[in-house]
Amino acid sequence: MQVKPVVRFPALLLFLVLPFLTHNAHAQASSPHAFTVVPLGVKGGLDESNLSTYLVAPTGSNAYVCLDAGSLQQGIEKAIANKVFATSLDTVLRQYIRAYLLSHAHLDHVAGLLLHAPDDAPKPIYALPECIATLQASYFNWQAWPNFGNEGAKPALGKYQYQRLVPGQETAQAGTGMSVRAFPLSHAAPHQSAAFLLKSQNSYLLYLGDTGADKLEKTHSLRALWQTIQPLVVSRQLKAIFIEVSYPNEQPANQLFGHLTPTLLLQELAVLGQLTGAEALRGLPVVITHIKPTAGNEAAIKKQLDDANKLQVKFVFPEQGERLEF
After folding, report:
1. Among 76, 292, 289, CA closest to 193
2. SS3 for 163?
3. Predicted confidence (pLDDT) at residue 78 exceeds the cutoff of 70
């Protein structure tokens, strides 16, 4: 009988290789991304085909919540053309979108929802009570539009079920595996908007509807939000912040109408940085939403943000119908 030699690894080689094998196994076991985001609309008005709408799902899932709903059809069609979705517009609208999360009821944030209500499938609408009250009074009232809600003007068709969010309270998002906490924002005081902190397992994504700066709105809404997310930024559990910059710095303060400029955003992020430490913000994706598509605005905003980015966050400028991963 032939005895096969025993191959022995030198102790030094094992010492060098074992950590690599352990790290590689961990990397394969964990996904590099927590959220898939499909922007269906990214602009802040004027272009009715490209208004604020963001689909968000846990990575690997087609169970999306729709953050605001300004433009649906055009965004879905672009996403299909870009091979983000390998299915029909009707399937995305009726099956993939499991719920709507509305930051406020301004028309550029709800027009797509209203127009597609006749062809949509039953699903919940999550929002703060003020937003739901406006939907009922101004849109789903049988004068502006049939009442597709489950409350309000008779007859209530009941396609959409209103779910009133309690600020700061975690609420499961129907059939998505995610939950949300809502936080009031000031959008040209005394008008209200909202921020949504989405959670998937141990990861978070923060989406802000339209908002003005605390110092101009004379509130502490943004500071309170920064205090809430501070530990999530420090622990790297917060994967991205979606926040608006509607106008370049040249826009007069009395014509901002409850919106941000690059300077105002960077001032607000500096407040967050004071809470977290500047190092924690370095490389954090900050997705810029709601740019007004007036000629020259986008180029000016990009330059002003990049030139003054001392915090070294990672500014992201979304495109309609192009997938983002965080």
Report:
1. 289
2. strand
3. yes
pLDDT digits (tens, 9 = 90+) for 249-280: 999 999 999 999 999 999 999 999 999 999 99
Terminal alpha carbon distance of the chain = 59
**Tokens read off for 143:** 């004068």
The H-or-E segment that residue 110 falls in is helix 107-116
Res. 22: pLDDT tops 50: no
User: CA torsion, points 91, 95, 98, 101, in degrees to nearest 10?
Assistant: 20
Tokens 């995305």: give the residue.
92
Q: What span, in angstroms and rounded, lies between the C-alpha atoms of 270 and 318?
A: 23
Angle of helix 107-116 relative to helix 73-81, nearest 10 degrees? 80
For residue 75 the two structure tokens come to 């965004």
Enter the pTM of the model: 0.90
pLDDT value of residue 26: 31
- DSSP E strand stretches across 122-254: 123-127, 160-164, 171-173, 178-186, 192-200, 203-208, 238-244
Edge-to-edge, what's the strand order for the sheet holding 192-200?
A: 171-173, 178-186, 192-200, 203-208, 238-244, 285-289, 314-316
Counting every residue written for the chain, the total comes to 326
- Enter the DSSP assignment of 119: G
Question: What's the rounded Cα separation, in Å, for the pair 220 and 230?
Answer: 15
Structure tokens at 112: 């797509």
Look up tokens 């059809």; give the residue. Answer: 73
Mean pLDDT of the chain: 92
Average pLDDT over residues 222-244: 98
In angstroms, the CA 169 to CA 167 distance is 6
Domains and CATH numbers, the chain: 34-321 (3.60.15.10)
Whether residue 45 is predicted with pLDDT greater than 90 in this model: the reply is: no
The answer to whether 213 and 260 are in contact (CB under 8 A) is yes
